[in-house]
Design a protein that fits this description.
Elements lengths: L18 H12 L4 H14 L7 H15 L1 E5 L22 H4 L15 E5 L3 E6 L3 E9 L4 H11 L7 E7 L8 H18 L1 E5 L5 H16 L8 E7 L15 E6 L18 E6 L10 H12 L15 E6 L3 H12 L4 E4 L4 H10 L8 H12 L8 H15 L5 E4 L9 H14 L5 H15 L2 H8 L12 H9 L3 H9 L4 H4 L2 H9 L6 H16 L13 H12 L28 H21 L2 H11 L3 H9 L4 H18 L5 H27 L1 H9 L10 H7 L3 H4 L2 H12 L8 H9 L12 H21 L5 H13 L7 H9 L2 H24 L8 H22 L7 H9 L2 H21 L4 H17 L11 H37 L6 H15 L43 H36 L1 H18 L8 H14 L17 H27 L2 H56 L71 E3 L4 H5 L10 H4 L12 E4 L5 E15 L3 E10 L4 E3 L3 E2 L8 H7 L1 H13 L4 E8 L8 E11 L4 H12 L7 E5 L8 H13 L5
Parallel strand pairs: 3-8, 4-9, 5-6, 5-10, 6-7, 7-9, 10-11, 11-12, 13-14, 15-20
Antiparallel strand pairs: 1-2, 3-4, 15-16, 15-18, 16-17, 16-21, 19-20
């Protein structure tokens, strides 16, 4: 046990169990301890580490331990022969029994009893089952008494099945039967489609016969046609263990992984084989062999438990997992299954044409209930059961008639699927429509029923069902009604439903509040990168606060989300979600104290309220939804949400930025990262499309859109986002480049040629002569043109002076003043283009001066030119410092430094300055004077290389410089490969030729330098003896200018192997000169082609940084720029004046009105772009081909339906025609006989020449019940409440006592009388005496049960239903009644009950309101002689019998504004949360109550109609 307490490995995280270590412990201990102990250990670890990733072997061990602990089988414990030799009454042979069961001491002398002599033991059959050699499923042998909760835990937790969104219970014929080919195909296709699309479980009998075989064939077809990435369809077979053929391979005490099961239909006999196409099997064991039906009860319990589980991921919803019963063919057992399903409220889908019971019900459902009688059922049974009909008794037909009538009486639970209907639908649609129909007509009132249907459709992901069945013209949806379904659709990643809800007026502003957003972020996919980072941040924060380590979903806050989004967007943005209450996030050990006066508090609260109103007005819920979708890389949801964004251009660029940053943090070669990059490129294209639409409409407004500060996205501009996201295509857009060109020109017009600008730089006075044009001049020209047009409009305008005044006002605002002399000079000098040209001249002058000093004038004592050079360099250094500390964007010094270092040209600048400084210092020291000059010469090279950065602005040279930079990177990797060959050859050559060279310079020359020169054609002479000379080397290395001689022989000739050195040289030249150099050429060619294809895009993207640099750069070039630096130092640090924003050209803050106007215009442009995109998509070839194929498919389907319908119609017409011909032949025969008898009447009756209608077309038959006689339905339910008694079946036509019913033989049932009834003196004699029972006869007719039942007395049992009402003054006066919640029924009820002759109020009401309040009500009833009785008479109650029934008196007690009403309200408040809770409910037809109480409330409403 010491192993269990060992320290965790260093790699293990705190609070996480190392499953590998636990597994090792289990394996180690398994060698020395019992396996049972190891299994219990595994089970305990599994319970404590439920959410860990366990190894497969450990999982199996834990699974086996759980099985041994929870699952049992049954076996016979007492062997007794049943008349067959060697066979027990349990059905198993003697050899199958244990030794202690052969002669058990405790059972000797007893008769065999199934319930006593069958015991439970741990199961011995479970694991994986290999079906057909390739398909692997799960199986387990369970006892019939296994709890449903245990089985559900097995399915969901141990077999890892996702909880279903729908349970399809398929039942029907257990034997093989014929089904039409088309119906068979529709059944298989529809069943798989509904299971696949909704995530349903299919539950069947699991054997390879009958309807189960058809389900298995559907599973097989799906498995053959689907890929490995398609969703698995779950088919669970619940089979009786004792009837499974060839089950021996499934038995093993420790489980089989897998067990190989083979299908053997030939040798199965009375048994049945498992269907090999099912995925899971529950083998139900009742301890017997060869007896069918043991699984029915367990299957029903399991299906009932599943139907009580919450639907979907959100357990707070009231919608449970729906269950539907699909019926094919079947016999008496199938009818019982359908009937029980209807009683439990489970809808059933009957496939007409499948045979037997299904066709009987389908044909009966075509008729009105009044025509479904015993004769019809007899006729249908004879038709569809053929030979089996002879074995049916009259009592069985009566029972069938009663059950079929009850089934048809619930049309909302019955759906008949017919393939010959005009409104043809597939089976999957029919199944889902049946479920919606059942939920629509349930007791759920109003919109709650529609919302439940919508939850079902969302869970199934069937938007087609929602459109056709839910979002109809009849349904009126509010935005709030769809919020819960909208949340389910978003969490479930169902974009079609999200789009449908938005089309049906879901308001994102109302839906997306803070709590909803937090819940959405809490329900991100577990593998989502953003969720992982979010949890890490929350965990780190909790560790800092010394809180618990376990994280909960409810702890996600928008502050955490904002911090992570800020990380992905960048530090140049502001947080998207601000914390409203700082103290709310203060740690527990901190104290947040605020002292303020009353006035300041009022001012602060007022300003806070204004800020909140402004924030709410600017809040963009579309942005929040779009951001949530982008962060989880959901393309479809993101596309829908992007269309809802107000600031769509900024949103698309922000998405591109976030996705590219997330892709960098993901696995760079993973599929997820690649998907992120694709989605980022998609939104870059979307941004280009929207901006193109904006630019085509209004260029100036589009350019403003680029530099507009977006309040919704962290106060950042579109241009900045595009640059940070590296969206080269967007920056290369013509509109963006036009804006950059305009910024480059400054106040100068873009139409000026470059040579004119250069001439004006040489002769500044030319700027006053109009030699160059300014942008203001062009604006004045355009304004004058518009002014002339307005003058013409004013002249031709009507005499409306107000309209003319508006035109004149427009003229005034168009008056622009031309630039004065100073403004022209300042505009010319400060233009970035002019600054750039002056800096080029300055830099060339600097290089010229630098070169002259190094070559001509570099002396021990610095000359004036050298001093000027140092001053010049100082100005460059100061400018670099200014650029480093200048932060107009407010991104922070750290970010500014990172951005500065990431620029290659800045690195060259720093390197050149550092080298110059080193050279300058060494130059001042006499001893190192020459070394300083050498360093300065090297520095001159770097300064010359820096010259390339200047020409990046050139459209010709700029792309070439990019190519050079990319090739330098390629060259670096090439040099790494080349150095391997150079060093390898150099070391080998040096070691072969030279013996122990100890001079470092000659070692480097021989190892590196000479092999490198060989590449360029310098072939060495020291490897060939022919060219060897003693004059070219030194023997002992004494001459420093000569290399050491190679090893020499006695005759002074080299001894090295000449053939080897020449061979090494050839190999080296082959790889270095041919292979590697050609590789370098190929790499350069690839880089050139790659950059050349995108040369324009690359050049336009890098152009921005240069333009921005010279836009903020001082006007004077070096060295005169020092004057600007001195002025900056004086104004900023000495006079403390704020700096002017030189980057206002790249950032603009709009007013509130301008912002709203800009967003509206942008939204319009987005709609135009989306409309054009959809039009282009619809005109594409792929779309047309797909659309055409869908139309052809629909047309083929319609033709098949019409053909089948026409064929069926023709068959019926031919049958009628044949019958008409037969009758005509009989009529002609009669005429002939009459003629032969010479006018005498024929003995045969004259046949009718008209065709009699079949039973499906007959007029409604006369009802057997007398008109006006009460007809009860609940009183004839077969299952009597609170007992195991089953009523005698009474069809509709046999209900009246007047109708003869010779087979009527109901059971007699009377419960034990209550103490209260005996105390009241109710007579008890004769409850079971038939003669005494005949004195009391139910006025409603036969009920199928004699006796008193559970009522207090024979004859009428009086109940009082007091309807206590009041008026509630809300928005409008509402009539409410006092209702009590019936927990067993799940609905509200009137607080009534049984009373005796001397009682007015029922005992239940006194128990609820108390004796004191009830006494006051009794006094009031005694004073009020006008008792308002709303109903009195017979009640159709399920407790009624033939001899005892319920009669009620319902009366209204209205409480006005009185003390009695106050006392009742106080009592209601006290009992609100008790077991028998009461509350005031509105008197409405949608109240969730039984039919009788609804009728009473309807009459109460009529009684109070018109009152207020």
């Amino acid at each position: 046990m010491q192993l269990l307490t060992a320290e965790p490995p260093p790699s293990a995280q705190p609070g996480i169990v190392s499953t590998d270590r636990v597994h090792a412990v289990a394996v180690t201990m398994g060698d020395v301890m019992e396996p049972s102990f190891v299994q219990s250990l595994a089970a305990s670890v599994t319970r404590t580490a439920k959410y860990l990733s366990l190894s497969p072997s450990f999982q199996r061990c834990a699974f086996m331990a759980w099985i041994k602990e929870n699952i049992r089988k049954k076996e016979c414990a007492y062997y007794m022969e049943d008349g067959r030799e060697g066979v027990c009454k349990c059905g198993y042979p003697k050899t199958h029994h244990a030794d202690e069961a052969i002669k058990p001491e405790e059972f000797l002398g007893e008769s065999w009893d199934k319930y006593r002599h069958i015991r439970e033991t741990p199961t011995d059959a479970f694991g994986d089952i290999s079906l057909g050699g390739h398909k692997v499923g799960k199986y387990i042998r369970v006892s019939t008494d296994t709890s449903s909760e245990t089985l559900y835990e097995l399915l969901t937790e141990h077999w890892r099945l996702r909880p279903p969104n729908l349970l399809i219970s398929v039942t029907g014929g257990a034997k093989n039967f014929y089904m039409k080919t088309r119906l068979k195909e529709m059944f298989r296709r529809g069943l798989i489609k509904v299971a696949q699309t909704t995530g349903a479980w299919i539950v069947t009998g699991g054997t390879h016969t009958g309807v189960m075989k058809h389900v298995g064939m559907a599973m097989r077809d799906y498995a053959l046609s689907s890929s490995a990435f398609d969703a698995q369809v779950v088919a669970i077979g619940v089979v009786t263990w004792g009837v499974v053929h060839n089950r021996e391979p499934l038995v093993h005490p420790e489980g089989c992984f897998p067990a190989h099961y083979s299908l053997d239909e030939q040798g199965q006999g009375r048994l049945s084989c498992l269907d090999v196409n099912h995925s899971h099997f529950l083998l139900v064991d009742d301890g017997t062999h060869g007896q069918y039906g043991a699984e029915i009860a367990l299957r029903s319990r399991l299906e009932k438990l599943i139907s009580q589980q919450p639907l979907g991921q959100r357990a707070d919803g009231g919608v449970k997992i729906p269950v539907v019963c699909v019926v094919l063919e079947g016999g008496p057992g199938t009818l019982n299954t359908i009937y029980n399903a209807m009683v439990n409220g489970t809808p059933s889908v009957i496939l007409e044409g499948s045979g037997r019971v299904a066709d009987v019900i389908a044909h009966a459902a075509r008729l009105p209930l009044s025509q479904v009688n015993i004769a019809l059922i007899r006729k249908l049974m004879k038709r569809f059961f053929s030979k089996e009909y002879e074995s049916f008794s009259s009592l069985m037909i009566i029972d069938w008639t009663k059950k079929i009538q009850d089934i048809i009486r619930t049309p909302h639970l019955l759906t008949v699927f017919r393939i010959d209907e005009e409104k043809h639908v597939d089976l999957d649609v029919a199944i889902l429509q049946a479920l919606l129909k059942a939920s629509r007509t349930c007791d759920t009132p109003g919109h709650e029923s529609w919302e439940q249907q919508l939850e079902l459709a969302v869970a199934w992901n069937r938007v087609d069902i929602a459109k056709s069945e839910i979002f109809t013209e009849e349904s009126q949806w509010k935005s709030t009604d769809l919020h819960r379904a909208m949340l389910s659709a978003l969490v479930g990643h169902k974009p079609d439903f999200v789009k449908l809800f938005l089309e049906n007026n879901v308001s994102l502003r109302e839906f997306l509040h803070e709590d909803t957003l937090c819940e959405l972020y809490a329900h991100l996919e577990p593998g989502c990168l953003f969720l992982q980072r979010l949890r890490k941040r929350m965990k780190a924060e909790k560790e800092n606060r010394n809180q618990l380590d376990r994280l909960g979903r409810s702890q996600v806050s928008l502050r955490h989300v904002s911090e992570e989004v800020h990380h992905f967007l960048g530090s140049f943005t502001q947080p998207l979600y601000s914390l409203k209450h700082p103290c709310a996030e203060t740690p527990e050990d901190d104290v947040c104290v605020t002292l303020q006066t009353k006035v300041s508090a009022e001012l602060q609260s007022s300003s806070t309220a204004d800020e909140e109103r402004e924030t709410e007005a600017l809040r963009d819920p579309g942005r929040d939804l779009f951001l949530w979708a982008v962060l989880q890389n959901d393309k479809e949801l993101a596309e829908i949400a992007w269309e809802q964004c107000r600031d769509s251009l900024t949103a698309a660029l922000a998405a591109s930025r976030i996705l590219k940053r997330m892709a960098l943090e993901e696995d760079q070669v993973g599929d997820e990262a690649e998907e992120m990059r694709k989605l980022a490129n998609h939104y870059e294209r979307q941004a280009i499309g929207v901006f193109s639409e904006c630019y085509s409409w209004d260029e100036q407004r589009a350019e403003r859109l680029l530099v507009r500060i977006s309040p919704s996205w962290g106060r950042v501009t579109c241009l900045r986002l595009a640059l940070e996201a590296d969206d080269k295509s967007f920056v290369a857009h013509v509109g963006v480049q036009a804006f950059l060109t305009q910024t480059w020109c400054g106040e100068l017009a873009m139409s000026n040629p470059q040579w004119k600008v250069l001439v004006c730089m040489a002769f500044p006075l030319l700027i006053y002569t109009g030699f160059v044009s300014f942008r203001r001049d062009e604006e004045i020209l355009k304004a004058s043109e518009r002014k002339n047009k307005l003058k013409d409009a004013v002249a031709s305008a009507p005499s409306d002076t107000r309209w003319k005044a508006q035109l004149r006002h427009g003229q005034i605002h168009m008056n622009l003043k031309s630039l004065d002399c100073i403004s022209r000079l300042a505009g010319f000098v400060t233009a970035p283009m002019v600054k750039f040209y002056w800096n080029i001249v300055s830099y060339f002058s600097f290089l010229l001066l630098f070169g002259f000093v190094l070559v001509v004038d570099f002396q021990l004592t610095p000359s004036w030119m050298e001093l000027l050079l140092y001053l010049w360099l100082m100005s460059l250094v100061v400018e670099e410092v200014r650029q480093l500390f200048d932060d107009p964007d407010g991104s922070g010094f750290q970010t500014k430094v990172k951005r500065y270092i990431n620029d290659l040209w800045n690195i060259l600048d720093v390197l050149s300055i550092l080298l110059f400084t080193c050279g300058f210092i060494l130059r001042l020291i006499t001893a190192t004077f020459y070394a300083g000059k050498v360093i300065l010469c090297i520095d001159f090279i770097i300064f010359c290389l820096r010259l390339m950065a200047i020409f990046t602005i050139s459209k010709t040279l700029g792309p070439k410089i990019i190519i050079v930079r990319r090739m330098m990177m390629d060259l670096f990797f090439f040099m790494f490969l080349l150095s391997i060959w150079v060093v390898a050859y150099g070391v080998a050559k040096q070691g072969i030729l030279i013996q122990n060279e100890d001079r470092l310079e000659w070692i480097m020359r021989g190892v590196v330098y000479e092999p490198y020169l060989i590449i360029f054609g310098n072939v060495p002479t020291d490897i060939d003896r022919v060219q060897f000379s003693m004059d070219s080397c030194t023997l002992n290395g004494s001459d420093p200018l000569k290399p050491r001689c190679p090893v020499l022989a006695a005759d002074q000739t080299p001894v090295f192997p000449e053939w080897l050195t020449i061979l090494l040289l050839c190999v080296y030249l082959l790889f270095a000169n041919i292979l590697l150099l050609n590789l370098l050429i190929a790499i350069f060619n690839y880089t050139f082609q790659e950059v050349q294809d995108n040369t324009d895009c690359f050049w336009k993207f890098q152009r921005y940084e240069l333009i921005k640099e010279y836009h903020s750069r001082p006007a004077f070039p070096p060295p005169f720029i020092l004057l600007s630096h001195l002025y900056l130092l004086l104004t900023r640090f000495l006079l403390c004046r704020p700096s002017k924003n030189k980057h206002r050209q790249f950032k603009e803050q709009l007013t509130r009105f301008e912002e709203e106007e800009m967003l509206s215009w942008e939204a319009l442009m987005q709609e135009n772009f989306l409309a054009k995109s959809r039009q282009e998509q619809s005109q594409s070839v792929e779309y047309r081909v797909q659309h055409t194929s869908e139309k052809v498919g629909d047309l083929v389907g319609m033709l098949e339906v019409n053909q089948n319908r026409d064929t069926d119609s023709m068959t019926k017409r031919l049958a009628r025609l044949e019958e008409q011909v037969s009758r005509s032949a009989k009529a002609l025969s009669w005429i002939m006989n009459a003629l032969k008898s010479q006018g005498c009447a024929s003995e045969e009756e004259v046949p009718s020449l008209t065709l009699q209608r079949s039973h499906t077309e007959t007029e409604p038959a006369s009802r057997s019940t007398a008109e006006g006689a009460p007809c009860h339905i609940k009183a004839r339910h077969l299952h009597y409440p609170g007992s195991q008694v089953t009523r005698f079946p009474v069809p509709e036509e046999k209900v009246p006592w007047e109708v003869e019913f010779t087979l009527y033989n109901p059971p007699v049932y009377s419960t034990q009388r209550s103490t209260d009834s005996r105390r009241k003196g109710t007579p008890s004699a004769g409850d079971s005496d038939v003669a005494n029972l005949q004195k009391y006869r139910n006025p409603g007719g036969r009920t199928g049960l004699m006796g008193r039942g559970c009522l207090d007395q024979l004859g009428p049992n009086q109940i009082h239903d007091p309807v206590i009402t009041r008026w509630w003054d809300g928005d409008s006066p509402t009539l409410e009644f006092l209702a009590v919640w019936e927990e067993s029924e799940g609905r509200w009820a009137i607080p009534g009950g049984l009373v005796h002759s001397d009682e007015t109020l029922p005992e239940r009401l006194e128990r609820i309101l108390g004796k004191k309040v009830c006494d006051k009500i009794k006094v009031r009833l005694a004073e009020d002689t006008r008792l308002q009785t709303v109903y009195k008479g017979y009640v159709d109650d399920d407790r009624n019998t033939d001899n005892a029934w319920v009669e009620t008196t319902a009366f209204n007690i209205h409480l006005g504004s009185s003390a009695l009403l106050d006392e009742v309200n106080q009592t209601v408040q006290r009992r609100l949360l008790t077991k028998e809770s009461v509350w005031w409910r509105e008197v409405s037809s949608t109240a969730l109550m039984c039919a009788h109480h609804k009728e009473v409330l309807r009459r109460v409403a009529e009684l109070h109609q018109g009152a207020s």
